[in-house]
Specification:
Number of domains: 1
Shape: globular
CATH architecture: 4-Layer Sandwich
Strand content: 35-45%
Number of helices: 2
CATH class: Alpha Beta
Number of strands: 10
Helix content: 10-25%
Structural class: mainly beta
Order of helices and strands: EHEEEEHEEEEE
Distance between the termini: 48 Å
Largest sheet: 5 strands, mixed
Length: about 160
C-alpha cells in the first residue's frame, strides 16, 4: 500500500492591514502546498502571495464569506466566523462545516489560537498574526495532512510592528 503524501498548509488570520507577515510567510514556507487567510486583512492578500482568502467583518472588498476546499482526504470549511463563534462556543461553526461535509473548520475573528474538536469537526483558529487578545504572541498555524491524519502546529514570532 502506497503511503499518503504529506500536505502542508499555512493558515493566518486577522492581520488588520499589517502586510509584512503576509508577504514573508510564502518565502519562509516554500514547501507549503496551500496558504489560507481567515479574514480581516483589510485588503486582498492574493496581491501578496498564493492565498485563498475569505472576507472578515473588517474587510470591504470582494471576497467570499466562506470557502469549501478539498485538500487530500479532507474537506476544509474556511470562514472568518463572525456570526458562527460565540464566547468560546463552536457549535454553530461545527454545524456549518458539517452541513458542507467538512471535517475541518478553519476560522479567525476571535484573535485567539484554537484547536478543538467539536461534534467530530476539527475547529482551528491560527490566532491573529497582528495581536492576540489573550496577551500571547501573534500567531499563525501550520497544518499537516497525511491521509486521514491531521497535525497542527502553533507558530509565533512574526509580528513586525
Amino acid at each position: 500500500m502506497e503511503k499518503d503524501s504529506l500536505i502542508k498548509i499555512v493558515a493566518v488570520s486577522d492581520n488588520h492591514g499589517m502586510m509584512d507577515p503576509i508577504i514573508l510567510l510564502p518565502t519562509l514556507f516554500p514547501d507549503a502546498d496551500y496558504f489560507f487567510h481567515c479574514g480581516d486583512s483589510r485588503e486582498p492578500v492574493r496581491r501578496y502571495g498564493p492565498y485563498a482568502q475569505v472576507r472578515g467583518n473588517n474587510d470591504f472588498y470582494d471576497a467570499p464569506e466562506e470557502l469549501v476546499l478539498e485538500v487530500g482526504q479532507h474537506r476544509i470549511y474556511l470562514t472568518h466566523g463572525t456570526r458562527l463563534v460565540y464566547f468560546g462556543e463552536y457549535h454553530y461553526l461545527a454545524q456549518r462545516a458539517k452541513k458542507n461535509q467538512c471535517d475541518i473548520a478553519l476560522f479567525g475573528h476571535t484573535h485567539l489560537y484554537t484547536d478543538q474538536t467539536v461534534e467530530g469537526v476539527r475547529c482551528l483558529n491560527p490566532g491573529s498574526i497582528w495581536h492576540n487578545r489573550d496577551g500571547s504572541e501573534p500567531s499563525f498555524m501550520v497544518i499537516e495532512l497525511e491521509g486521514s491524519e491531521i497535525r497542527v502546529y502553533r507558530k509565533s514570532g512574526l509580528a513586525l510592528k
